[in-house]
Design goal:
Layout: E1 2-6, H1 9-26, E2 31-34, H2 41-52, E3 62-65, E4 67-69, H3 80-87, E5 99-100, H4 109-122, E6 128-131, E7 153-156, H5 159-165, E8 179-182, H6 185-189, E9 193-198, H7 204-212, E10 230-235, H8 245-256
Parallel strand pairs: 1-10, 2-3, 2-6, 3-5, 6-9, 9-10
Antiparallel strand pairs: 4-8, 7-8
Helix pairs in contact: 1-2
Bound molecules: 2-amino-2-deoxy-6-O-phosphono-alpha-D-glucopyranose.
Length: 257
C-alpha cells in the first residue's frame, strides 16, 4: 500500500484529487467510484475547484457510489444519493445519466443489488474508487464479519456505525436506518485503484488495523492489503497509532523524489 501522512485535511484532499485528475487526463471516459461521508469532502472541494476552473472535466465519465441506506423516504436529506449530489455531483459536470447509485428503496432489494453489481461490470469496472473508513473498520457499509468476496448486497449496520452516523440524524440513533445496500468487498476490490482518505483520532485504531493488522473479517478494510494499487491518505491523528510511522514517511518521500 502507498501510505501518505499529511498535516491537514486540505492536503489530503489535494493529493487524492491529483490521483483523480491524473486518471481523467489520461482516460476521460473513466469510471469513478464515489464515497459518501465527511472524509472525502476536501477531495471533492479540490475536484469542484478544478472543474470550475476548466482544468478537469467529468463530462465523458461515469460515477458510481458505494452504498445507500435502506428505507429512507425518497426525499430524506440523508439519503446518500441526495448527500453526494449536494456535496459533489451538483457542482461538477458528470451528465445526469452517467451517475449511478444503489437503490435502497427498491421493492426487490436483492435484485437491485445484483443489477448494480452487473452495471459496474458491464461498464468495464471502476477505475478509481474513493473510500472512507468507519471507526469499526468498514469500507462502504461492509461491517465486521463480511465475506471478503461479497458482491453488492443488503447488510445490517452495527450499533457503532449507527452511533457514528447519528450526528446526521439529529443525534438520534433510532432514526439511523438499521439496513443498507452496499457494494461488497469483492466488488470494491475489483476497482483498479483504491484511494482511502481518513482524518482524526476516531479513525486511528481502524487505520492501524488497516495498515499493520492481520487481514481479518473483524476489520473489513484490511482486505485492502491484498490490493495491488491501494493508497491510504491520512492526517497525523489518524496515523497516530501506526508503529512504523517514520518508515512510511520515508517511503512516501523517497517515492516522490
Ligand atoms: C459511512 C459510510 C462510508 C464512509 C464511512 C466513514 O458510514 N457508509 O461510505 O466512508 O462510514 O464516514 P465519515 O467519512 O463520515 O467518517
Amino acid at each position: 500500500m502507498k501510505i501518505g501522512i499529511f498535516p491537514d485535511d486540505d492536503s489530503i484532499g489535494r493529493a487524492a484529487a491529483d490521483l483523480v485528475q491524473e486518471l481523467f487526463t489520461h482516460h476521460p471516459q473513466a469510471n469513478l467510484g464515489l464515497a459518501t461521508g465527511s472524509s472525502p469532502l476536501a477531495t471533492y472541494r479540490h475536484l469542484i475547484d478544478r472543474v470550475s476552473s476548466g482544468t478537469l472535466s467529468f463530462a465523458r465519465g461515469q460515477a458510481y457510489t458505494l452504498d445507500e441506506y435502506v428505507g429512507l423516504e425518497p426525499d430524506h436529506p440523508q439519503r446518500y444519493r441526495h448527500v453526494i449530489y449536494r456535496d459533489f455531483l451538483s457542482r461538477v459536470d458528470f451528465p445526469a445519466q452517467s451517475v449511478h447509485t444503489p437503490n435502497g428503496n427498491a421493492n426487490d432489494l436483492g435484485a437491485a443489488a445484483r443489477n448494480y453489481d452487473q452495471s459496474i461490470a458491464q461498464a468495464g469496472g471502476i477505475d478509481l474508487q474513493i473510500l472512507g473508513i468507519g471507526s469499526d473498520g468498514h469500507i462502504g457499509f461492509n461491517e465486521p464479519g463480511e465475506s471478503f468476496s461479497s458482491r453488492t448486497h443488503v447488510g445490517v449496520l452495527t450499533d457503532q456505525t449507527r452511533q457514528d452516523n447519528a450526528r446526521f440524524f439529529g443525534a438520534d440513533i433510532d432514526a439511523v436506518p438499521a439496513y443498507c445496500i452496499t457494494q461488497g468487498l469483492g466488488t470494491i476490490m475489483e476497482a483498479r485503484r483504491l484511494v482511502l482518505v481518513a482524518q482524526g483520532r476516531s479513525k486511528a485504531r481502524a487505520i492501524r488495523e488497516l495498515v499493520e493488522g492481520a487481514v481479518s473479517a473483524r476489520w473489513p478494510a484490511t482486505i485492502m492489503q491484498m490490493h495491488p494499487d491501494a493508497w491510504v491518505l491520512i492526517d497525523e491523528e489518524a496515523a497516530s497509532e501506526l508503529e512504523l510511522i517514520d518508515y512510511y514517511r520515508e517511503v512516501w518521500e523517497k517515492s516522490r523524489a
